[in-house]
Write a structure and sequence with these properties.
The structure is a single chain. This protein folds into 2 domains: about 5-45, no CATH class; about 55-145, 2-Layer Sandwich (GMP Synthetase, Chain A, domain 3). About 25% of the residues lie in helices and about 30% in strands. It is built from 2 helices and 8 strands; from the N terminus they run E-E-E-H-E-E-E-E-H-E. The strands form 3 sheets. The protein has a 3-stranded antiparallel β-sheet with strand order 1-2-3, with no helix packed on it. The radius of gyration is 19 Å and the shape is elongated. The two termini are about 35 Å apart. The model has no long low-confidence stretch (mean pLDDT about 95).
Length: about 150
């Protein structure tokens, strides 16, 4: 078993506390001591220059897939030099009228080097294995699409 921690701290900075007026800015301190500025998404009265939970969710799925992909590729003796993923998530209302991130699309682009270059089928297999073994993907009900070429 592994445990991961984050400490979220919010402090009111507005004169009053109404839905329209309270500040959404807060900080999250992670287990290693890093402090990151967060807010709600701009669509929900947040600050665009801070991380929001929806972006972080998409980033968590993207980075988990990448880290798992790299581990699988290394074990297969492929050399990955570059991995870039322009991931996106769609938030919409479910049947109960509640917002949720229904789909996250990963768009990894990779550069390999060395004498052993993966075939198209091997790249597909690497992504499939990465998806099947990604800890975060295994923890959510969001549909995750991997769009690679």
């Amino acid at each position: 078993m592994h445990e991961y921690r984050a400490t979220t701290t919010w402090r009111r900075t507005s004169a009053d506390f109404t839905y329209e007026s309270y500040n959404r800015a807060h900080e999250v301190k992670f287990g290693g001591g890093e402090v990151v500025a967060w807010s709600s998404a701009p669509e929900f009265k947040g600050e665009a220059d801070r991380v929001n939970p929806e972006e972080a969710f998409v980033a968590s799925l993207s980075t988990c897939h990448m880290l798992t992909f790299l581990a699988v590729a290394a074990r297969k003796r492929f050399v990955v030099d570059l991995y870039v993923d322009e991931a996106s998530g769609i938030m919409e209302k479910n049947d109960a009228g509640k917002y949720w991130v229904s789909v996250v699309t990963l768009r990894p682009k990779l550069t390999f080097s060395g004498p052993r270059q993966p075939s198209a089928q091997e790249i597909s297999d690497l992504h499939h294995s990465a998806h099947e073994n990604c800890f975060i993907a295994n923890s959510v009900r969001t549909q995750i699409k991997v769009d690679y070429q």
